[in-house]
Amino acid sequence: MSGFQVICWICSSICREYGAVSDRHKAQSIASLPTATMYQVIRGFILTDSRCWDPESQRSYQDLFDKLDTNKDGKVDVAELRAGLTAMGISFRKGAAQKIVSSGDKNKDGGLDFNEFNKYLKEHEKRLRLTFKSLDKNNDGRIDASEIKQSLEELGMDITQEEAQTILQSMDIDGTMMVDWNEWRDHFLFNPAHNLNEIVRYWKHSTVLDIGESIAIPDEFTEEEKTSGGWWKQLAAGAMAGAVSRTGTAPLDRVKVFMQVHSSKSNRITLLGGFKQMIKEGGVASLWRGNGINVLKIAPETAIKFMAYEQYKKLLTPEGEKVQTYQRFMAGSLAGATAQSSIYPMEVMKTRLTLGKTGQYNGMFDCAKKILRKEGIKAFYKGYTPNMIGIIPYAGIDLAVYESLKNAWLSRYAKDTANPGILVLLGCGTISSTCGQLASYPLALLRTRMQAQATLDASDKSTMSGLVKGILANEGFFGLYRGILPNFMKVIPAVSISYVVYEYMKTGLGISK
């Protein structure tokens, strides 16, 4: 299965996930019916005459509400919604019923009365209508395979015409190889995801998973997100997630830098020993030394990377043509290099502050003044070359491993649903980021040592090639991986913290309900 066939799986599984017939009082063979037949059963079973919100459909939803309200208290709570729709033939994935009730429960009484129930479905239909119109490129009231292919390409998902036809068939009830509004609406009616971008985002490799290294390929935003302002909310949510994540894992980051610079065969520093030295020298608070500027650089770096990424895509793509995968990778790598170049002096200051002793610097501005006065402007770009070289292996391996893990999961487990769940997504992101770090770690170590040269003995100061030769001669190959243990230890908590904070920030900013 190709990386982009996930869209086919998502679209074809939505109905099974939200509309698969499961009533055991019906013939057991219904589960084996062709997809179109199953849709017809669901239609007749639940969505009878529910068209375009005319009085007849209003009556239909009143009937549905009455069936769901099993205790006849005038409200449908999460348990009733889940049990009622499952009993009538619609199974929900975990959390879907809660999401629907939370979205429609305006008075926060834990349930939906009929007005709230009806209003939620109306608003949901409006959003589905907008998505349908955005897909219907020629405005003929129907969606064909070429329109699906074009729309997914605009979202950054390259698929073949055959794959687009397979997606279309999963929604095409009458066999015309076109999907009209009613077919589209019935297919997604009880799916809390209300636009194609949300569905695609199941498997988009989001940069929200902040592990302290901001050199991954930037996130892709749709034209709708760019015009509506949704992009900056996602960037703001990601920045806040990164800030909390980096603060939470700052002690591990500091001991990593400490081991990268000072640990050697003759001066072995263990993880526990490094913590003891730092606490003895500056107290517990010293474990967060350098974290302030590490958090502060997130905002400018994220903004510069996003703007540069959009410009590089335009430069690399011939006018009138779609952006190809390799062009996205090139644009992302160049955007990462541009952002890193812009904020690199802050990287040097972060390293100096992290390694500094108590009282050596009175904040980042004092650090900047002392570096400028003693070493000149060039000192702010020490270690720049290995840092730039490290972008390609990190971003490339991160992306390649993620795609491989995604395809492996889809081919083996995506039988009933293409939604992998939080644990699988976090697992794939964690493993791919770790692999990217593993490949680029020697370059990161060289960068850190070169940034810290003013704090080292004169004999330790060298060029990039000189440092490599010295490390290999004195410490062997594994000397290039000094400090990798705390680096790996911080990946899982960093990913977990950033994901949780990102989800809360999205809700707070109104990105997701």
Short description, anyone?
The protein is about 65% helix and about 0% strand. The protein has about 525 residues and is mainly alpha-helical. The model is unreliable at about 1-55 (pLDDT under 50).
The CATH architecture of the largest domain: Alpha/alpha barrel
Report the sheet with the most strands, covering strand number, pairing sense and barrel closure: 2 strands, antiparallel
Task: Write the CATH fold name of the largest domain.
Answer: Mitochondrial carrier fold
Mean pLDDT: 75
Show unreliable segments: 1-56
What shape does the CA trace take? elongated
Characteristics of this structure?
single chain, 513 residues, mainly alpha, Recoverin, domain 1, Mitochondrial carrier fold, 2 domains, 4 strands, disordered N terminus, mitochondrion, calcium, transmembrane helix, membrane
Chain-wise SSE layout:
Elements: H1 6-19, H2 35-46, H3 55-68, E1 76-77, H4 78-87, H5 96-104, E2 111-112, H6 114-135, E3 142-143, H7 145-154, H8 161-171, E4 179-180, H9 181-188, H10 196-200, H11 223-228, H12 230-248, H13 250-262, H14 271-282, H15 291-296, H16 298-316, H17 325-355, H18 364-375, H19 384-389, H20 391-413, H21 422-451, H22 464-475, H23 484-489, H24 491-508
Antiparallel strand pairs: 1-2, 3-4
Helix pairs in contact: 1-8, 4-5, 5-6, 6-9, 7-8, 12-16, 12-24, 13-14, 16-17, 17-20, 20-21, 21-24
Structure, explained:
The structure is a single chain. This protein is an all-alpha fold and 513 residues long. The chain folds into two domains: 3-200, Recoverin, domain 1, CATH 1.10.238.10; 223-508, Mitochondrial carrier fold (Alpha/alpha barrel), CATH 1.50.40.10. Helix content is 64%, strand content 2%. The chain is built from 24 helices and four strands. The strands form two sheets. The protein has a two-stranded antiparallel sheet. The protein has a two-stranded antiparallel sheet with strand order 3-4. The two termini are 32 Å apart.
